[in-house]
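Service request form, structural biology core

Requester: graduate student, group of Dr. S.
Request type: structure prediction, single chain
Budget code: on file
Notes: please return the result as structure tokens.

Sequence provided:
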Amino acid sequence: MIGKDFRTHLLTANAMGCLTRGDHDITAAVRLPGGQHRTLNLPIPLNAWQRRKTPQPVIEQIDQLLGGHTYSQVACILNQRGLTSGDTKPWDPGRIRAHCFTRHLPSLWQRLRDTGMLTLDEAARQLHAHPSSIKRWYRLGLITGHLADDRGTCLYHPGQARPGPAQVEATGKALGDSRRSGRSYHPDLGGPLPKTVSATRNTENNASNTT
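Core staff response, request fulfilled:
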């Protein structure tokens, strides 16, 4: 397009010239009527995909925000700042995810995992508790964690102390959450106690009460 416009201007001005394309720009050498010479350096026009490319400063902001936010939270913050993607469309979680995949930017979940944070099952094994207890303790503020994705998945800090029954009960009452702390949990089995074991324990308890 530049070459066509350049030739049009030359014909209009009754001048002569040539274009030389370099790695970073285009050099236009012009000889005007009367022997005058002019040299212009013009930027190389962008291709269609280059015009739609998201600016690097925006990508850097996405990378920075993912250190503590999910995809939907990052999209919301960018839209509030008035930033758009390269095709001038507003951000959404899918668009953020696609940009991260293309540019190999780790998600919030992966970043938290890289710092050593635990999944629900890992936290349950470490605290010798049922996963439902881990969720309730986190909801009550008795253990700490961090939201890791838009599905509501949480990761938990390692090395935390297991809350005692009295602490759980008192905190639950204070917050209006009087549900049971959790179920019996066997750390070697990685889940709740089998029903046969629970039934045996209940039988033994009933027998001891009758004697």
